[in-house]
Amino acid sequence: MRDQDGRTYAASTVSLPSVHVDALDLAVAMAVSSGAKGIEAAAFVAERNPEPIVGGTAVRDLSGHGINIYIADPTGEVVRVGTT
């Protein structure tokens, strides 16, 4: 994910017995904790297509006008583009 100032954030999904945080939501949390006020772009790389594209609302909360989220497979090929 890239914020409005061009800073980038990378995260992976955290799945523990007591907590589950999707990768994009975690990247948003890291951005917000660094002072980001908006998102310019996001990408999600996974072995399978996630449904829905964004598990929570964190990306929508920070994207404002909406952004494209590029979904790629492990080879880097974009397999789908979703919009928040």
What is the fold's blueprint, element by element?
Blueprint: E1 2-3, E2 14-15, E3 20-21, H1 23-33, E4 39-45, H2 58-63, E5 68-72, E6 78-83
Parallel strand pairs: 4-5
Antiparallel strand pairs: 1-4, 2-3, 5-6
Q: What coarse outline follows from CA principal-axis ratios?
A: globular
Tally of alpha and pi helices:
2
Order of helices and strands: EEEHEHEE
Gyration radius, in Å: 12 Å
Span from first to last CA?
A: 13 Å
Total strand segments: 6
Helix content: 10-25%
Helix/strand/pairing category: alpha+beta
As for the number of domains, it is: 1
- Could you state the oligomeric state of the chains shown? single chain
Low-confidence parts lasting 5 or more residues at pLDDT below 50? none
Mean pLDDT: 84
Largest sheet: 4 strands, mixed
